[in-house]
């Protein structure tokens, strides 16, 4: 059997299984790679190659899909993501809740002066600042000709915000600016819960992994090799 080179690293920026599959397919196209696996849950990648492949070449292949790699421990990356999600969520709700209350008053007949302008300004802050990671994820997906949840959220919230913009310019159109703000905030709430559960699950999985084999054996046409169990798909 030919000598093997094994590499494992963290992949940053992935939000769904489509992202993971895109990165995995890009890694498989690198000359000399005979096996590549990307695990969305652990945000890790593992590959086996017939020759040594530089980290720069791997980084280029991943970045071509719109994502990145990191040698930083996955636990540290998850902690940073959790803290960022928490800050974005708190800031978003501070604006969204009172904006939603004003929208309800406006709908039941208590007209709020300059409400459309308020929607436009504060809604824009939530959508374009608190939701900046969502916009980034949507942009990555669209520029690489695929879609994900970020694409759906951004297009929906942007469409709502545009109605506020057009209404503030004097067009006879109903403003849904607050709805766009609510879409982003609810999405961020889901992201925060996901991040919290992922962090909790990662700790539990780590405890379970200690009780099972750390490696899995994969059979190839020219022999067999061992890989980390987390990247085996089992």
From TrEMBL:
The chain crosses the membrane at residues 89-105, 111-130, 151-167. GO terms for biological process: copper ion homeostasis. This is HMA domain-containing protein. It comes from marine sediment metagenome. The keyword Oxidoreductase does not apply. Keywords: Membrane, Metal-binding, Translocase, Transmembrane, Transmembrane helix. Residues 5-70 form the HMA domain. GO terms for cellular component: membrane.
């Amino acid at each position: 059997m030919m000598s093997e080179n094994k590499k494992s690293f963290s992949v940053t920026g992935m939000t769904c299984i489509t992202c993971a599959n895109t990165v995995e397919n890009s890694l498989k196209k690198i000359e000399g790679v005979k096996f590549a696996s990307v695990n969305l849950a652990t945000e890790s990648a593992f590959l086996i190659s017939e020759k040594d492949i530089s980290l720069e070449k791997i980084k280029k292949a991943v970045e071509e899909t719109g994502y990145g790699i990191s040698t930083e421990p996955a636990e540290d990356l998850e902690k940073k993501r959790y803290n960022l999600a928490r800050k974005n969520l708190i800031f978003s709700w501070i604006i969204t809740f009172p904006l939603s209350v004003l929208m309800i008053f406006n709908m039941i007949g208590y007209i709020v002066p300059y409400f459309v302008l308020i929607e436009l300004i504060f809604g824009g802050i939530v959508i374009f600042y608190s939701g900046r990671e969502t916009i980034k994820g949507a942009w990555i997906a669209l520029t690489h000709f695929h879609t994900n949840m970020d694409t759906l959220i951004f297009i929906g919230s942007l469409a709502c915000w545009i109605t506020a913009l057009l209404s503030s310019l004097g067009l006879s159109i109903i403003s849904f600016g607050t709805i766009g703000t609510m879409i982003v905030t609810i999405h961020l709430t889901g992201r925060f819960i996901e991040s919290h559960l992922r962090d909790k699950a990662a700790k539990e999985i780590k405890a379970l992994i200690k009780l099972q084999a750390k490696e899995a054996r994969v059979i190839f046409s020219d022999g067999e090799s061992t890989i980390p169990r987390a990247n085996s798909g089992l």
